[in-house]
């Protein structure tokens, strides 16, 4: 069961379904000539939320994005809301070291990188001791197939591709290190 099905509250995860029922053929997104109706947006978001669950991504995990504004990013936003995942949008305007610092702090289970920002993503993840798994957005990327969520962190009890926040190295230089799980 996805997070929005649990209690019927009007949430971000439920918003696209409500709009798809009330105005299914109305244009929800017009992105440089690519249009999505509310029905299509909801269908893609539901499919991606289900794919996240099937690949082992658990509620509460973080999915970081290094993308511009696009229809694919909106789909990922609503899919994360439906799956109970936390979307962490990162700015493509950052330097690789700044981006690596943010990735170290948020410790995403997956980093979704738009192809035009692939070099920046590669430079930033190369600075990390344990880089997150990466994938491209959209129908040719994460909507076609997601990398599996990764190993289980025994100390925190949830699935992660990097060490969990309980045992990961501190983000600040000079802070004490915790033992790995």
Any overview of this molecule?
It contains 5 helices and 8 strands, in the order αββαβαβαβαβββ. With 181 residues, the protein is an alpha/beta fold. α4 crosses α5. The longest helix is centred in the N-terminal third of the chain and has 17 residues, at 38-54.
Relevant terms:
two-stranded antiparallel sheet, single chain, 4-stranded parallel β-sheet, disordered C terminus, 181 residues, globular, alpha/beta
List the topology elements.
Layout: H1 12-22, E1 27-31, E2 34-37, H2 38-54, E3 62-66, H3 71-83, E4 86-90, H4 96-106, E5 110-113, H5 118-125, E6 133-135, E7 152-153, E8 158-159
Parallel strand pairs: 3-4, 3-5, 5-6
Antiparallel strand pairs: 1-2, 7-8
How many separate helices? Answer: 5
| Oligomeric description of these chains | single chain
Specify the structural class: alpha/beta
Overall 3D shape = globular
Largest sheet, described in full?
4 strands, parallel
Distance from first to last alpha carbon: 29 Å
Radius of gyration: 17 Å
What percent of residues adopt helix (DSSP H or I)?
A: 25-40%
Total strand count, please? 8
What do the pLDDT scores average to? 84
- Strand residues, percent: 15-25%
Identify low-pLDDT runs: 152-164, 177-181
- Helix-strand pattern: HEEHEHEHEHEEE
Trace the largest sheet across and list its strands: 4-3-5-6
